[in-house]
Structure formats: structure tokens, C-alpha cells
Design goal:
Helix content is 40%, strand content 19%. By secondary structure, the chain is of the alpha/beta class. The strands form four sheets. Strands 4-14-13-12-11-10-6-5 form an eight-stranded parallel sheet. Strands 1-2-3 form a three-stranded antiparallel sheet. Strands 7-8-9 form a three-stranded antiparallel sheet. Helix 7 runs parallel beside helix 8, helix 8 runs parallel beside helix 9 and helix 13 crosses helix 14.
Length: 379
Amino acid sequence: MFKVRATKYKARVGELTTSHGVIQTPCFMPIATKGAVKTMSSGDMKALGAQILLSNTYHLLLRPGLETMRELGGLHKFMGWDGPILTDSGGYQVFSLSKMNKTTEDGVTFQSHIDGARLKLTPELSIEMQSVIGSDILMQFDDVAAGDSTRDRYEEAMERSLRWALRSKESFTSLLPHPSSLTPPPSTLTPLLFGIVQGGTHTDLRERSINGLLTIGFDGYAIGGLSVGESREDTYKMTEYVAGLLPTDRPRYFMGGGMPEEIVGYVKMGVDMFDCVLPTRNARHGTLFVWAQDPKTVDWSAPGFYDRLRITNESYELDQRTIDQHCSCETCKTTSRAYLRHLFSVNEILALRLATIHNLSFYLTLMKSLREWIAQTAV
């Protein structure tokens, strides 16, 4: 399932085999929350070199719904994407929609942000929906505490997440006649299930969470409950601590982060998988990530390898230069800074698409460059 091909200190290059293809790690997963990366088609994502997309169980459960998704034959067929898909379990919405839900031991009752209808999401329903979606990598259902929580709240969320992890694993096993293993034959590849480490900013709670998840046993392990309001210093500290305790023969996934320099830092700690809304969200607001130098020559031990270009600034009104001289994406091949600024100024929807293409290209190139750096200088 997962093989480490090269290492440079803690950083590693690996291959994660799924039923829809092999993923080269470290990798970045563009977010297709509701079955689409905003402004982009599945063909666009393939052209950019995306290896895997991330979709969200909660949002797809609301629309189109479990039975409709089942009749449609799953998300791959529905959105025309033949690569791997990872699905968030809906646990993040426990945190992000906390004002619209009520958590009990059985699960979380949400009040739909669409029509106010009530929906009770349990570990069992989450796993069933992810299975119907056809996810290649399913996530356990978890309880996410905010980054400014008390120790008691962190501990409560961690312990509940462990109990939900066991229920998620039992539900996953019951739905699959042949649960996944480390080296499944190609003809019997089955979906993978990841556990999620919780415990907030407390090392002892994180260690208890890891020990509990290892006892249950998962195909991979995610570092959850970070980038939710705590300081960056605490995020780095917890990520390095958790990564150091996780098995070396399983993929490690940092959920929801982050800025390019943060991803570089996490890769150096031994993290393999990432997702984040930053490239697409920044694009829609006119902020583009641009290389300060050729990504093939970056010194990853030094800061300042990129800049942020706010294309809506008046200074770009007559700027005929390409967006990023070190990028070969469609946007940089065809679009000047002046033209992209103009598109934003007249609220042309094409602006969002062109900016998104570039930012996703930046993030995917970042991961490719890191893989090459690790492989070429492996020790």
C-alpha cells in the first residue's frame, strides 16, 4: 500500500497505492468540497498534474445525498475524474459549524445551512456515505476541538474521537468483504481507512490518541485538530511531535495546512500528504503565489522562495509581464498581469479561473520540487 522510496533526514518520498492509481508523496490534494474544484473541471485538474482530489462527506450528504449518489454510481463517474479521491469524514464541520450542531456520544446533529433541515451524522453514516461516494481513502469520523479550547475540551474530543475511530473501523470492515492490507494484490485493491490523531496542543493527549489508534489499526494516520486557531509555533511543535510517533510504514497526512513555507516545514518533519483551501481561496481574491526563483534551484533550508502578488493593485494596470516568469501553467503562458488585473476589475469570471490555475500549479510544482529535492539528495 505505502512504500518509502527515499529519505532525507525525516523527509521522505513515497508511493501510496490506491484503487485508482499510485500517488507520489509528498503530495498536495486540491479541494473539491462539493464534487468540484472551484472554477475548474476534472480535465483541468488532470492537465495540471493533480494526483488526488479531496471531497467532503458532509456537503455531499446534503446534496446530492446518499441515495442519489448511490444511483449515480459514485463520485468518480459523476464528476468524470478517474484518479484517487480522499473524503473528509465531516468531522471538520463539527468545528466549523459548531453554532449549527449538537454533539452527543452517538454523533452530531447538524442544522443544514441550506434549508435548516436536521441531519444526524454518525461514524456509521459517515463511513457509509464515503463508501457510496467511492472514496479511495476514507477518514474516520472525529470530534475537532477549536484551537483555543481548554485542556478538558481537548481531552473530551480526543477520547470521543478514539471511540468514534473504533466505530468507523467496524463500519468500514462490515461494508468491505476484503478490508485493505499493506500489500493487496492489484485485482483486489480496496479502499483505505485513515485514523485521525487528536489532542490539541498537549503532547500527552496526542500520545494517548496515537496509542489508541495504533491499537485499532489503520492504513494511514492523519494529524488533525491543528490550523484551527492555535499559534503557528504550537502547530509546528505538535506536528513534529506526532509525526515522530507515527509508524514509518504508513502515510502521514496533515489536515488543512497550509502556507507554502508551512508545507515545506511539515515535509521536513516527515509528513506525506496535505490539503488546503489557500491556493483556490487566495486566487478568488486576487492573490497569487509566485516563485522568487526557479523552483528547481530553491534552497529549501532558506526562507523567501516565493512572493505573493496582489494582482488587483493599481500598479499592475499597465504591467505587460507574465504573472510568474518561473511558471509554465496556462495562465502564465497566455496572460499578462495587466490583463488579469483588468478581468478582476470588471468582475469577469475568467479571472477566477486563470488565477486558480496558476495557484494550483504553484502548489503542485512545490510538491514535485520537494520530491525531487528529497530523492536527489537522499541520505
